Amino acid sequence: MSFLTLLAGDREIRAQLKERRSRLYRVAYSWCHDRTLADDLVQEALTRGLARLNQLRDPAQLDSWLFKILHNCWRDCFRCKKNNQDIDELEDYHYAHEDTPEHLHSLSQVIDRVRAAVALLPIGQRQVLTLIDLEEFSYNEVAEILEIPVGTVMSRLCRGRQSLKVKLIELAPQVKAGALRSVK
Predict the structure, then answer these.
(1) What is the pLDDT of residues 133-155, one digit of tens each?
(2) Are the CB atoms for 29 and 38 separated by under 8 Å?
């Protein structure tokens, strides 16, 4: 294989790394709830990925490989900051202009409640839930990324979904009994 062929393949993988940045950021943010930390984790993961590009055995496994590196960066950061706490900083969303302000506000409240409920989950359940439900990785891929057995992935996912359901019910706005009345 010639040097030019290797260089062209390297450029292609570098371009693919850039394309994966937004997905990595989304997952990192869901794990730590801190924009700056999420950006730092993604930067570190991509830097490590580029430095160890020769260790990628199968280019088809690029996503799993990158998310495993991101997980390792998160674990390293978590080890350094034993007192790490979630920050309740929520991002404003911009919706299409055709939606009414009331509808946009309602959607924003639902998103805030879901994010708050996910933030209350233990980190293990939060990681599995975001990788499977948001990023659509398979159980085997998540087990490889997080370096845990597949059974642990399934149990954390099940417990996380059950806890999320309970937390969403708890965080739902309470309707006063006298607020609704029957009209004939």
Answers:
(1) 888 899 999 999 999 999 999 99
(2) yes
Burial class (CB in 10 A: 0-12, 13-18, 19+), 162: exposed
Which residue, among 39, 26, 49, has the nearest Cα to 137 in the 3D structure? 26
| Segment 34-72, tens digit of pLDDT | 889 999 999 999 999 888 888 888 878 888 888 999 998
Q: Which residue has the tokens 């006298």?
A: 178
Q: Which residue, 80, 13, 73, 5, is CA-closest to 43? A: 73
Q: Is 58 left (phi over 0), alpha (psi -120 to 50) or beta?
A: beta
Residue with tokens 């996910």: 118
Backbone φ and ψ for 174, nearest 5 degrees, come out as -85, 130
Angstrom distance (rounded) from CA 59 to CA 77: 27
Q: What secondary structure, in 3-state letters, does 108-121 show?
A: HHHHHHHHHHHHCC
CA–centroid distance for 104 within its chain:
23
